[in-house]
User: Fold Inositol 2-dehydrogenase from Enterovibrio norvegicus.
Amino acid sequence: MFNIALFGCGRIGKVHAVNIAANPETQIRAVIDPYQEGAMQLADQYGADVMTVDEAMSDPDIHAVCICSATDTHADLIELAAKAGKAIFCEKPIDLSLARVRTCLEVVEASGVPFLVGFNRRYDPQFRTLKDLFESGAIGKAETLVITSRDPSPPPVDYVKVSGGIFRDMSVHDLDMARFIMGEDPVSVSAHGSCLVDPEIGEAGDIDSAVIVLHFPSGAMANIINSRRSGYGYDQRIELHGSKGMLKAGNVREHLVEHWGEEDCSSAKPQYFFLERYEKAYIAEWQHFVDVLEGKVEPQCSGYDGEQALVLAEAALESLNAQNTVKLG
Assistant:
């Protein structure tokens, strides 16, 4: 049984708490959060102790950390855990600064501890099946990839102001997915965007609608479409076209019942938000981390992957501002 220190008791921390407790090989040993009331509630729920950062890092009975705290705490906690010899799972991003990410990864590499970055969509059953079929040769050589990601409604402006912007906060998932599916790093990035949904997002210095084009060394291309508002649920689709056909992963709907009548035919909307849509992905992601702890596998999403996703997000922002294509490598 692996004892886990959970950092952060917010929305995503609670998601991971459920999966840590449900897995037969892990249990929550410590909960750490500056909001003491929330920490105590979560600790009581799972039979854990409320600890300080120092207490958790120095506890020899804690084998690993699960970092779900505020973004600006991630890199510091990663470094502390690495120096303490704890295995590390950290929600994306490592940090919003590429320079800070790189200094953090130097510490992790020097420590030799396992490190998994939480890009959960890699573990989604639909997307994983698509990748497996592609790698089996089902559609031959990849030619074009289209990733559509639209939130059901825009986030609060206060969140936008601290999020790092749409490319670092939202598009970064799709940029990682493009690398994951294609199995190669892009050589150029071109991004275009507008503020079409919420004027307050524009006033905060961000955009809410974007299109990103990636070119890969193989000649293949990826097109990423992002919006902060769909109006019909959490729109998550992938289409990969190759020399021998196409693979397509559609939306997961609220239910599979369709209504057919004289007037029209209808089906359910996509599931509303990421907590429902990626429930199975979060479970599979934690199981993968357990496999890493047991020494069965290497982390499928490494610190390098976390760094490269941010490299692409930064390149997209540079492209948008300069209105040109950014070359990489």
Notes: The chain is about 40% helix and 25% strand. The longest strand covers residues 142-150.
